[in-house]
Every structure is written in structure tokens, then in C-alpha cells.
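Convert to structure. Protein one:
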Amino acid sequence: MVLPSQNGAGEPFIPVTYAGKPSLADLLTIESSASIFYSYARETELSKLFADKDARSTVLVPTNKAVIALPRKPHEGPAPIREGVILSEAEFDDLSKKNVERWVSAHIIPASPISLATPEGHKTLLGGKNVTFTPTDGDKDAPEWTRVLLDDTVRLTAMKEASNGVLYILDGTVTLD
């Protein structure tokens, strides 16, 4: 990619890398199958973690297809507003932001690397929300991430290493109880 310089001549684009790897933010930027998740995440302060070279995070990233399949979208929250309740635009915006932050934080484990084979759960940034990985039958020579299910139902379809953590692409989402 060539970016224009101030004198009109282009200079090659060189991404910022640490330890020879792109950051979580860089990987999310180019992961087109996860653009909806990253769009929601950028609406929150949590997205700063993705570029922070000192933060170590494991990000559970649902595909666009998984987000579209949700019966209630992340900004809508887990339950509909009671019928007859009227919110101002500011109240609705505030509630939507809180719902998005809650949903995104449930998809971030504030540690990396993690062992997926451990029976105990991993705490997410959403207080009180843990996720577990359940071993499945599979090729014992295949990577660990291909042989587990998230919360017994969600398959991990890809893994990408970053300088500041790991992304796991999911065919579902972390459920909020």
C-alpha cells in the first residue's frame, strides 16, 4: 500500500509490529469475517486493549454470520424494554452503549496465552462471566484449539496470534445469562 506523503510522493505503508507480529487491532482490522464484532468493539473503551502492546488478551471473536443470527443484537441487550416504557434518546443511547460494552467484554479474556484444555473456566472482562472449553474427539495431532468447544456449543474455526494476544474466530457467540 502506498500512502501519499506531504510532497506528493508515496511512501510504502509499514504497520507497527511488536515481536514481529501485528497487534490484535491490526488483525481485527483485516479480518473481514469479524467486522461486525470489531465495529461494536470500537464503540467502547475496551478497543484500546487491542492496540496496547503491554496488554495480553485472548479475544473470542464471533463471525459476522454468528452476530447476524442473534435473535437480539448486542446493542439491544438481553431482554426487551417493557412495553409502555418510554426512553428519551439520551437514555436509549446510554442503554445501548452499556449493552454493547457488556457484550464485547464477555468476549475478552484478560490473559494470553491460555490453556484451552483446563476444566476450570476462564474469567472474561464481564464481571461474573466465565467461559469454558470442552475437549472433543478429534485428531490428536491437530492444534488444541481445533479440539475444543466454547461453552459446550461453539466451535473455534480459526486462531491468529498477535504481538499482544490471541484471536479465536468463533462460529457462535459467548452467551450472556
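Protein two, convert as well:
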Amino acid sequence: MTSHALYRALEASKTAFGAWITLPGAHNARIVAQSSPHLSWVMIDCEHGLTPLSAGSAEIIQAITGIGFSDVSPLVRIPATGTCSSTSWMIKYALDAGARGILVPMVSNPEKAKEIVSDCRFPPAGRRGFGNPLTHLAWNVSVVDYLNFANNFITIMVQIENKEGVENVEGIAAVDGLDVLFIGPYDLSLNLGYPPPFPDVHPEVEKVIQAILEVTHRKGKKCGIFCSSGTQAFQRAQQGFDMINVTSDSGAMSEAIASNLKAAVGQNV
């Protein structure tokens, strides 16, 4: 398979809905990945989630990619943020694990975005090294085929989450090879001096979010955003966001248990 669900959705200009993987374990991730035909991607969160970047993300990706051609795209958010210099080896680990795309948190300037794109691509387009004996197996292709198509089909994403990123969003969005600018409303709110969204963002933060969306589309890139409910996700889809997180594994599990227990004691009557 040389393509994947998120890539196909973005290429077709269809809204790509996803879910956040915060809990470790292949079985947990596979249950999420098989939960809905409307799911295009899952984000294995190695920044704030409990999955370790190296072996942990690889095991989850292998579990998900065995589902079939219509499987969701396993993506990885690396632990290191764009404000530090240690993102390169983490991107290598995530892509060697078979990730269909990587997300780097808190990217603040075009220079860092260019470095990230280079780390995601084999020469001569970039500086990614080759050598992992299992990566092509996670894509269900030969080594030769993987080397031929990886540069084209890996989705490269950066998060706009701080004041510097907002100030430099025009330059970041103009970086060649970058696919998605993904808004993290929680850290964005905190870094702009506003409370985090519970559940909705502050009106002033909303103005910034809409400005990022406009710039991203004007520069020909896709714009993503983290939501915590289907209601929020529907609203963002109506606004034109291309890639939208709907829920998380831990959040959905907690909500479902609470809802069923509420019904069990008669509080839904």
C-alpha cells in the first residue's frame, strides 16, 4: 500500500476526522482504529500520552496497519517540541516505526519547519537516514517501493501553539513540503495569556485561530485542530478545517462509562 487514509482525504479535500491515542498498548489502539468508518487517522501521542516513542509506537503501528487497505493512518506526535534542537532523531524513530505522518509540537519559525521537512525526506530531497529493517513491513511493501514513495506520502505536520508561532505563521505556512499546520488550542490559549478551553476557547483566542486558518489556506496548506467532542468537531468542519481531532481514547472511555452508569441509576429518565 503506497497511500493511506489521511493522505487520501486531504488530497480529495475531504475533512479528515481523527482520534488521539493517550493510553499505551496495541489492543487499545486497534480498538480505537476499528471504532468507526468515519475515522481517517489516529494520533499516537508520545508527547503527553503514555506510549514510549521507540518500541511503543512501533507496536501500535504494527497492530493498526494489519487491519487492511481501508485502515486509518497511524500518526505520531513526538515528545520534543519545536523550541528545542532534539527533534531530528525523534522524527527518525517515528518514521522508522512506520508512521504515516509526524506531528511536531510548538513550532515557532520557518527555519524549524524547514528542518522538520528535511528530516522527513530521504536524499536528495532531505536528510533522513535509511536502515531500519522493519519500516517497509509496516507499510506492507518492499524496501524498494518504500524508498520510492515515502517522500511523497508521509504527512508532515507542525503545531502552532505559542505566540512566536502565531507571529511567524505566514512564513511557516509558506514552507515547501509542509502539509498541515495543526492548532493546539490548549497550549495556544495558555501561551497567549488566556485560560484553556473548557470546553470552548476564549473569544480572543478564537480570533487567532480563525486568522491561522485563513493564512494556512491562503498559502495552500491544510489546517488541523484539536477538539474534544463531536459537537466541537462538527463546528470546526463547518468552518473549513481540514483535519480535526474528535476525541481521545481515555476521554471517550471515561465519558461512555459515566453515561452508562448515569443511565443505570436512572438519572437519564
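Strands lie at 16-21, 39-45, 73-77, 101-104, 155-160, 180-183, 222-226, 243-248. Residues 117 and 267 are 52 Å apart (CA to CA).
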